[in-house]
Write a structure and sequence with these properties.
This is Phosphopantetheine-binding protein. InterPro entries: ACP-like_sf (IPR036736), PP-bd_ACP (IPR009081). The chain has helices at about 5, 15-20, 25, 45-55, 75-85. With about 90 residues, the protein is an all-alpha fold. The radius of gyration is 12 Å and the shape is globular. The chain starts with a helix and ends with a helix. About 15% of the residues are buried.
Length: about 90
């Protein structure tokens, strides 16, 4: 494990849920939403979410990436970010 990965907070479903609950991303995210429940982010919410990921986790995710169509649940988002972006 590198010093950089130790300093960066871990990406968890709770962390993703917290980011998604930002009014600029998903103003009406129900607090008890199941991690596998499907939802749709609008384009502005998605861009703000990606910006927040970069600020909080140091992750740069391009909005044009095809995988973004899979960002339809808290678990799918978390799994992608952990699989692809965590060391």
């Amino acid at each position: 494990m590198t010093a950089e990965s130790e300093a960066r907070p871990r990406i968890t479903t709770d962390a993703v849920r917290e980011l998604l609950s930002d009014p600029k991303i998903f103003a009406d995210l129900p607090p008890g939403l199941d991690d596998d429940a499907e939802f749709a982010l609008d384009s502005l919410g998605l861009v703000w979410f990606l910006h927040q990921l970069e600020l909080r986790f140091g992750l740069e995710v391009e909005p044009a990436d095809a995988f973004l169509a899979e960002f339809t649940s808290i678990r799918r988002i978390t799994d992608y970010l952990v699989d692809v972006h965590e060391p």
